[in-house]
Design a protein that fits this description.
- Belongs to the peptidase S49 family.
- InterPro entries: ClpP/crotonase-like_dom_sf, Pept_S49_pIV, Pept_S49_SppA, Peptidase_S49, S49_SppA_67K_type_N, S49_SppA_C.
- By secondary structure, the chain is an alpha/beta fold.
- The strands form five sheets. Strands 10, 14, 16, 17, 18, 20, 21 and 22 form an eight-stranded mixed beta sheet that branches. A six-stranded parallel beta sheet has the order 8-6-5-4-1-9, with helices on both faces.
- Helix 15 links the parallel strand 16 and strand 17.
Length: about 600
Amino acid sequence: MLQFLKYVLATVIGLVIFSLLAFFIFLGFITAASSGDKVTVKENSVLKLKFDKPIVERGRENDSFAELANSLSGNPNSVGLIQIRQTIADAKNDNNIKGIYLEPDMYGATAGYPTLEEIRTSLADFKKSGKFIIAYGEYYTEKSIYLASIADKIYLNPEGVVEWNGLSTSITFLKGTLDKLGVKPEVFKVGDYKSAVEPFLRQDMSEPSREQTRSFLTSINSHLLKTISDARGISTTELQALADSLTIREPKDAKQYKLVTDVGYADEVETAIKKALKQDDKKKIEFISFTKYNKADNKEKSESGSSDNRIAVIVASGEINSGDGGDESIGSDRIAEALRKAREDEKIKAVVLRINSPGGSSLASDVMWREIQLTKEKKPVVASMSDYAASGGYYMAMGCDKIIAHPTTLTGSIGVFGLWFNVKDLLNDKLGVTVDGVKTNSYADIGLPTRNMSDFERQWFQKRTESVYEDFTSKAAKGRKMNVEDLRKIASGRVWTGEQAKQNGLVDALGGMEDAVAEAAKLAKLKEGDYRLRYLPEQKPLIEELFGSSSETMETKIIQKHTGALAPYIKDIQKLKSWQGTQTRLPFEIEIR
C-alpha cells in the first residue's frame, strides 16, 4: 500500500512539474521574442554592481530561460563569481566605463569571505586603471564593509545601519526532535573533531567542536580586521574595540571611526558620481547594470589571448555524491568525465580544479581522486579552494600537484563518519506500522532502518569507517609528502582556515583562482598570456537540468518560495537522505554571521 501511494504521489508531482516547465518554456519563447532590443555601452557610463543575489561559482551565460524560471518561481537569479570577475576585468579595459557604483548590501546574497575576497581583488585591479569606485548602502554588515572598504568613497544612508559587532556561527541540534519522533541515529565516526554527527547525538556543542569553531572563527576575524585596517587606516585593535563596545550606533559614528567616508542619500551619491565623471549636474548618469553590460554588443572585452594552449578550469561546487550532479552539487561521474576530457585534450596543458564543497560521499570523493591522479601523470593539476574545500572537498584537493587556498577558506576536516537512522519506534509506537520479512542469511537485512542493530553489526560498521579513515589519511599524507602519523595529528576531523592550513602543511600557498591559474601555467611551462581558459564541465541547458536525473534546482526553488525563513532548516533535513553510508563532510552547516 505504501509503495502504491509513493508511486501515485511521484506521478502527481511529476505531472505538476512537467506542467510548470511547459508553462515556463511557453513564456520563455514569448520573452525571448520580445527582448531583442540591443544593449550598447554609452560613453561616460558607470557600471552598477548590486550584490543582492546568491553568488555561485559559475553562473549561466545570458540564459533567458533561467532568468524567467527564477522570476516566476519568486526566487532571485544567482550570479556567477566567474562572470563577476570577468565583468570587472572587461570594465577596467572598456573606455566607455569610467567607474563602478557599488551597492554591497548583502540582503539576498549568500557568499563566504573567500568569494568576496575574489571580488574585492578584482575591484582592486580595476582601480589600477585610475577609474573610481563609489559605494552606497543602507545596511552594512561585516561582509558589506569588507567588500566596500576597497572603494574610494563609502556612503551610508543618514538613517542607515552599520552592523559592526564581530562574527558568530551557530549549529542547529536535532536530538530533541529525533527523541520525540522515536528516531534513533546509529553513528560511526573517526576523529574527535568530526562534529557533523553531533546535531543528532547532542543538544549542544562538544568541547572539541567548540574549540575548533572558536579557532577558525578567530582566524577569519583576524584576516577581516587586517584587510579593513589596511584599507581604511584604522588599527585592528581599534576595530576590535569598536565591535566589543557596540560603539557604532548611528551613521555619524560609522563616519567618525572611518568605517564609511560619507553619510548621504542616494541623490547625494549621484552628485558625487557626476563630480567624478566631470559631468554637468543636470545631465543624467549613464548607469549600466551587470546583466545589461554582459549583453552589450559594443562591450570591450579584456584580452584572453589568442594561443591554442588551454588551461582547463574544472568547477566543482556543492555537496559530493555519486552520479551526474548538477550546478549546485558535485556528481563524481560528471567531474570524472571532465577530468578525462581535460586529460585527453592535447590543447589543454594544465588543469585548475576549483573546489567549493563541504564534502559528502567518501566513495564519490575517491572516484574523483583517482581521476586526478591519472590526469596528474599527463599534465599539472592545481587545486583552487573557494569558501569550502573540506573533508570530501579536501579529498579532491590532496592529490593535486599544488593546493592554493584563500586565508579564510574552511578546509581540512580530514575525518569520516557513517550515519543510519533507526525508525522502528517511530513506525511502531507513533504510527502503528510494523514491518516483517524473511532473509536467506543472518545479515541480509543489515542497515535496515526498521530494526535495531546488533553489537556485531555496530562493530562491523565502525571497523569499515576506520578503514576508510586509514585510506583517507594515507592518501592525504602521500599527496602532501608528509609522514602519515604527522598528518593524523592535524586530521581527526578538525576544520582549519586556509591560513592555518598553510601553516600546518595542508595547503601550499594563499591566493585566489588567478594565482592558481598562474601556478598551473608555470608548472606547464607556459608564458604569461600564452594560454586561454576553458571551463568544464560544459553546462547543460537549464531545461535539461530540470528534466534530468537531478531535480535539485527546482526542488530548492519550491522549498524557498513556500517556506521562507524556514527553508534552510527544511533543506538540511531533506539532505539527510543523501547522508546514508560513509561520509566525509563538514559539520551540519556552518554559516558565519
